[in-house]
Each structure stands twice: as C-alpha cells, then as structure tokens.
C-alpha cells in the first residue's frame, strides 16, 4: 500500500459523505455583512414614504373650497311660492335673517332708512316691534329677531360673520297686514342675487311693501302688530341676479335644522342652478314646489354621471317643514367638494328650511 | 433535468446528455479538478475527459448518484494528470502536500501485491474509521483529502484558525494510522 492507493481509496468513499462534504466556494457563499446605516436608512425611507402617503391622503380627503376667479353672471329668476302659515295668538315668530354685506359703509341708520318705506307704509296696529339692522364690514350678518305677536316685541341681534366677500345676495320679504296684522320683514340668504324685490300680500286687507336693495348693505326692519290668529299668506318672490363681484373667501352658513329622509312622491323640480360663477354659486340649487333650495354641502365628486366631470344626477327627497310636505325630485348636482357617509351619499339642501338629500 | 433523465440520455446514446451534464455539473467538476490541478485550463480539459469517460462507461454503469460518480471520475483524472505533470513529492503544491500528509497514515511504505482488492478493503477500513468521527471532522477530512482544499479554505469555511484545523487533521491522521494498524494494513 502506498500513498496513491490510500488517496484512491479515499476517493471511493461513500457518495453521501462526498456530497455532504462538498465545499462551497467562499466567494459564492460569502454573505456580505449588512451595513448598519443602510438598514436604518431603508427603514427611515419607508417610514417617510408611509407618513407622506398619510399626509397626502389626509390632505386629499379633506374637503376644501377653492375660490374661483370672479365671473359675471346675469340670471333672472322669477319664482312664486305659496305659503300657508299658521300663527297662534301667543305664538312666537322667529325670523332668521341672512345678510351679506360687502360695503363697510353700511350702518344701522342707513339700513333702517332703506326699509322705512316698506314697513312704514304697512304697519298699522296696536303694537309695533322694534326694528333691527345690522351691518358688518365685508361680511355676512345673521340677524335673528324674535317677535312676540301679542304686542310686546323683542328683538335680539346676533351677528356672526360668515362671509367676507363683496358679493351680495339677499331675499327680502315684507309682510304687511293692515289694521291688526303683523308685519315682518326678513332678509334671506340667497347666494346669487344682488338685488331683490319681494312683495307679500295677505288674503285680507293688505299693503304691499316693496324693498329694493342694490347691493352691499345689510338691512333688516321688523315691525309687528297683531290681532289675527291664522293668516294665509301668498308670497311672490322676484329675484334678480345681476353681477357677482370679487371675493376673498367663503364659509357656508350654518344649517338651521335637519330633516330626516323620507321617500314619497313630490312635484318635480322645476329648475335648478348649476352654480359655477362664484364660490357661493358653487352650491347648486333646485326648485321644488316653487321653492328654491340650495345645497348646503356639496357632493362627492366621485359620484359623477353626467358629462361634466363634477356633475351627477340623482333622486332626492326630504321633508320640508316650511311647507309641510315631503318632496322628492330628480336633480342634477354640480358638486364642488365631496361629502360621503356610510349610509350612502348625502346632499344637504337648504332654502327657507333645510333638506337632507340622499341619493336614490 | 434530474439524474435519471440524464442517465436515460446516456443509455439512449443521446448526445444531449453531454451538453446537459456539462451545464448541470460543469462548475462542480471544474472546481474539483482545479483544486487538484491548480489550473483552470487543465481543469476544463479534465472535465471534458470526465464527461467523455462517463459517456463510455454509461452504460453499462448505472450510478445511483451521478454527481458523485462524475466527481470521482474527475478526481481520479485530475490525480492522474497531476501525476503526469509533476513528479510526486517534488512539487510544493496543494496536492503534493496532501499526498505527503496521507503518507503519514501508511503503516509501512511497502506496496501491496494486489492493489485492486486492497483498494476496496482499504476503502472499507477508512469508511469504518470516518464513521466513528463527528460530522464536522468527517467533512473536514474529506474536504482536505478528497476535494484537496487548502488548510486556509477549510479554516475560513469553519471559522477556525489554520493551526486548529491543522491540529485536528493531524489527530485524525494519527487516529487513522492506529485504525489501519489495528486492521493489519501494514501487512
């Protein structure tokens, strides 16, 4: 036996052992150590990406109103609506007044004088309520007046700036009841009008009061005197939309009440506005039973059906406390920002009252 | 392609067996031959010879493990080539050192008259000895004396110092010498 035979004998060992002992090249098997800072860098990058994604998602999902460049829109809308109002002897009438002012020169005295023709000619009665006028510089004023129809009238004024635009929109209603009737003048928030004339006529003896507002001032005058129990009032509203002017920002006015969803038939929508010209008009409006309602919150932009990338159509329904009816209509909505709920898709409308609209 | 399919190609005398064998085991065979020969070109020639020999030997041979079978062939061919290129015990390369070390295991330097029969018996004896060793020692032994790995490679692979590897192999050689002595391999 020599070295070579021993070497050859080792070469004939078990296959299993030979393959088990197979050396793996160090170069191939060598695992390069992971550099510590690289690991931390990768972790930091991942965290940064995740945080960035969250921030982006949060910013994207947050509803925002972006002001659009002012445009000039001339729209003339004539609507009429009938209101059956029941007033008890000891009832309390609450007027919600929305005023928008863009003129810093507005003042209480001036607004009072502007309304004096309407209220002065109509109010005759045993008691007379106070009149209130409010004005805010470049803002919206919400004036709430509570009148006790029994004679003693109190007026409270709450001023809440909601808008700082130069666009004015108002609806004014003047009610005069000759002899013993309450006269109330309210100014309603209408997003798209700058001048407005309203006359209201009672079924009995009446006086028509007319007020015309040109722009930029908030005026409210209330005078009341009462002796009637129930009055049926027919209102005719003439609304004229003229020109929108510059604005800086906008905040939606608060909703006065909410109404639950109800699905019953209702008269169709007679008209609607798309609302593109300014931020206020971005809230669409529909007209049901000769009453106009404005979207208080916009709709989910992903729910679009029409050609317009932001528009969609839907059936809406709701109960209108002001007319005591449930209304339902197929409307076209041109959204400005999205609101979605778990219960589906909600659109809030309001005019003289508040609607909660649900997609049908 | 698994070994059975390759062997089937060999049996069918399909020349695709050569290409598949080279693609599957070429790197392994080359590494074995290069460790013995220390030359890549010689190793590749040795691999070609190995495949040619496998082509001639299969059939009738039908190895259970084709990789080990080819490994043994390439090892023997590499040893033969190395012997023809270098005079034994005169070189300072790795294989020569390996053979020198293995010479320490021989109880006597006398050659056996019947080396063929002796080879088989010696293999069984070495197998019996290695079976008594731990897996790590056995792998270390085979890497040194089958694959002709250098001490430094083994030390690096096992995370040891070279001196420790040398000492462990020295002890195994001494034990193998005693083992062979007990089996009367010095007769």
Largest interface: A-B, 26 and 52 residues
Return residue spans of chain A where pLDDT drops below 50 for at least 5 consecutive residues: 66-270, 272-282, 296-312, 332-360
Kindly provide the radius of gyration of chain A, computed on alpha-carbon positions and rounded to a whole number of angstroms.
Answer: 34 Å
Count of alpha and pi helical runs of chain A: 5
Task: Note down, in words, how this protein is organized.
The complex is a heterodimer of chains A (360) and B (187). Helix content of chain A is 17%, strand content 31%. Chain A has five helices and 16 strands. In chain A, a hairpin with a 4-residue loop joins strand 13 and strand 14. Chain A is elongated, with a radius of gyration of 34 Å. The C terminus of chain A is likely disordered. Classes of the chains: A alpha+beta (360), B mainly alpha (187).
Short synopsis of the structure:
In chain A, 17% of the residues lie in helices and 31% in strands. Chain A is α+β, with helices and mostly antiparallel strands.
List the helices and strands and how they pair.
The complex is a heterodimer of chains A (360) and B (187).
Chain A: H1 3-11, H2 15-20, H3 26-29, H4 36-61, E1 75-86, E2 92-101, H5 108-122, E3 139-148, E4 163-165, E5 171-174, E6 185-188, E7 195-202, E8 230-241, E9 247-250, E10 269-273, E11 285-288, E12 291-297, E13 312-320, E14 325-333, E15 346-350, E16 354-358
Antiparallel strand pairs in A: 1-8, 2-3, 4-9, 5-6, 7-8, 10-11, 11-12, 12-15, 13-14, 15-16
Chain B: H1 3-11, H2 16-37, H3 40-57, H4 66-85, H5 94-103, H6 115-131, H7 135-145, H8 151-158, H9 162-182
Q: Could you name the key traits of this structure?
A:
heterodimer, A: 360 residues, alpha+beta, 5-stranded antiparallel sheet, 3-stranded antiparallel sheet, 17% helix, disordered C terminus, B: 187 residues, mainly alpha, 9 helices, 73% helix, 0% strand, globular
């Amino acid at each position: 036996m020599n070295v070579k035979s021993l070497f050859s004998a080792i070469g004939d060992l078990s296959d299993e052992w030979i393959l088990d002992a197979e050396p793996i090249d160090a170069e191939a098997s060598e695992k390069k150590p992971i550099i510590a800072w690289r690991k931390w860098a990768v972790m930091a990058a991942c965290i940064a990406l995740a945080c960035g994604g969250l921030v982006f998602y949060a910013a994207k999902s947050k509803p925002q109103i972006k002001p659009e460049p002012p445009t000039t829109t001339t729209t003339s809308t004539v609507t009429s609506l009938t209101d059956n109002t029941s007033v008890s002897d000891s009832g309390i009438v609450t007027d919600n007044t929305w005023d928008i002012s863009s003129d810093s020169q507005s003042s209480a005295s001036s607004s009072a004088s502007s309304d004096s023709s309407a209220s002065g000619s109509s109010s005759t009665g045993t008691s007379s309520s106070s009149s209130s006028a409010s004005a805010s510089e470049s803002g919206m004023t919400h004036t709430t007046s509570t009148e006790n129809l029994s004679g003693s009238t109190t007026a409270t004024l709450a001023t809440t700036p909601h808008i700082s635009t130069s666009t004015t929109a108002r609806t004014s209603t003047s009610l005069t009841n000759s002899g013993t009737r309450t006269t109330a003048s309210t100014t309603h928030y209408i997003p798209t009008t700058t001048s407005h004339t309203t006359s209201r006529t009672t079924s009995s003896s009446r006086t028509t009061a007319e007020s015309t507002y040109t722009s930029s001032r908030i005026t409210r005058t209330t005078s009341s005197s009462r002796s009637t129990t129930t009055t049926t009032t027919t209102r005719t509203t003439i609304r004229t939309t003229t020109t929108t002017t510059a604005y800086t920002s906008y905040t939606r006015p608060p909703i006065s009440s909410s109404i639950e969803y109800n699905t019953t038939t209702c008269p169709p929508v007679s008209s609607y506005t798309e609302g593109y010209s300014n931020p206020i008009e971005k809230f669409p409006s529909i007209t049901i039973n000769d009453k106009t309602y404005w979207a208080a919150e916009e709709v989910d932009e992903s729910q679009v059906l029409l050609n317009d990338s932001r528009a969609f159509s839907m059936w809406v329904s709701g109960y209108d406390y002001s007319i005591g009816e449930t209304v339902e209509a197929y409307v076209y909505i041109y959204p400005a920002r999205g609101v979605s709920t778990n219960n589906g898709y909600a659109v809030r409308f309001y005019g003289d009252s508040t609607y909660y609209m649900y997609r049908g | 392609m698994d070994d059975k399919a390759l062997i089937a190609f060999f049996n069918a005398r399909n020349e695709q067996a050569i290409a598949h064998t080279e693609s599957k085991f070429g790197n392994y065979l080359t590494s074995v031959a290069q460790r013995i020969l220390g030359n890549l070109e010689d190793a590749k020639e040795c691999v070609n010879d190995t495949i040619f020999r496998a082509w001639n030997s299969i059939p009738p041979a039908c190895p259970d493990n084709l990789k080990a079978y080819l490994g043994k062939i390439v090892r023997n061919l590499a040893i033969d080539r190395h012997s023809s290129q270098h005079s034994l015990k005169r070189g300072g390369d790795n294989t020569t050192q390996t053979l020198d070390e293995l010479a320490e295991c021989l109880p006597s330097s006398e050659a056996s008259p019947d080396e063929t029969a002796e080879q088989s018996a010696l293999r069984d004896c070495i197998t019996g000895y290695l079976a008594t060793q731990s897996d790590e020692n056995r792998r270390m032994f085979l890497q040194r004396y089958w694959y002709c790995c250098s001490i430094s490679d083994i030390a690096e692979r096992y995370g040891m110092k070279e001196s420790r590897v040398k000492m462990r192999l020295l002890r195994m050689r001494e034990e193998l010498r005693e083992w062979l002595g007990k089996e009367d391999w010095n007769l």
